[in-house]
Design a protein that fits this description.
The protein is an alpha+beta fold and 271 residues long. It has six helices and 16 strands.
Length: 271
């Protein structure tokens, strides 16, 4: 006999400055993920626009703004642009491993460099190793840290150049947070490659979606998400297609050819 379902209690945060749109104020509604039904609750909430952070599911609940929109890629129908195909070829030598959600010093060092370069004034900039461990290890669902490394040499793992905290759900992969090598001498397009890699793995496993979090209308930082087509957005009437702009449609070359994946051990899914 299954345990009775308990409707979760929801709470609302105090208003605070929006990190994406100047002059705006953000507010979130959230609930805890705990108990035997954490995974089921997380997936159900994910389908209506919630995101996971540690053992909390949240979504924007701003009083006078609705710019944050949940988006997800239709993995089986994904169409790669010419630029995305170049990115796949450029990074095709990387070795990818899905690790259990335990942090390493190497991962933290990569995150620290990424934040210092890309988000020096952001809320995560002061994150220490303990904070990072909480971010990764406090998870009530099936979670992995997907590592992207330079080719191994003499039996030793290559340099860690990218990582993504990802949840595997019944209907797809949810990319919680990715970070990668940036700055002088770093590989170009690693962020794009990490998303492409997740799309390929979802498609190979017949998982329909890759959840990319929120696209924020008017925020240049979030504009890149619309380049992964076809994309669905969550609206008042449920999920629906989000049309690419004319330039993206022109660049699309049709369904991506799934390459042979380089991996040292099984990943999130049997690809």
């Amino acid at each position: 006999m299954s345990a009775p379902f308990r409707f979760p209690k929801f709470f609302v945060t105090n208003p605070s400055p929006c990190p994406y749109l100047p002059g705006k104020v953000e507010r979130k509604v959230f609930t805890e993920l705990n108990g035997r039904q954490s995974s089921e609750l997380n997936e159900a909430l994910g389908r209506i626009g919630f995101r996971r952070s540690q053992s909390v599911a949240y979504r924007p609940s701003c009083i006078d703004c609705s710019a944050c929109v949940s988006v997800r890629v239709l993995a089986a129908e994904f169409e790669a642009s010419a630029t995305q195909r170049k990115v796949m070829r450029r990074h095709g030598d990387l070795e990818v491993t899905a690790c259990k959600p335990w942090t390493t010093e190497e991962q933290y060092d990569l995150l620290h460099r990424y934040l210092a370069n890309r988000h020096p004034g952001g809320g995560m900039a002061e994150m220490d190793e303990s904070d990072f461990a909480d971010m990764v290890e406090q998870t009530p669902v099936r979670t992995f840290v997907v590592e992207y490394r330079e080719p191994s040499k003499n039996g030793r793992p290559g340099k860690l150049v990218g990582a993504c905290l990802s949840d595997q759900q019944g209907d797809g992969l949810s990319m919680i947070y990715s970070f990668f090598d940036v700055g002088h001498g770093a590989r170009k397009g690693l962020g794009t490659f990490i998303i492409l890699d997740h799309i390929i793995r979802a498609a190979r496993a017949s998982l329909p979606y890759v959840y990319l979090g929120y696209w924020v209308d008017g925020s240049p930082r979030m504009a890149y998400k619309t380049s992964f087509q076809p994309l669905e957005r969550l609206g008042r009437d449920g999920w629906g297609r989000m049309d690419a702009d004319a330039e993206t449609r022109k660049a699309a070359l049709g369904p991506i050819e799934l390459p042979v994946l380089r991996e040292r051990e099984h990943l999130l899914i049997d690809a």
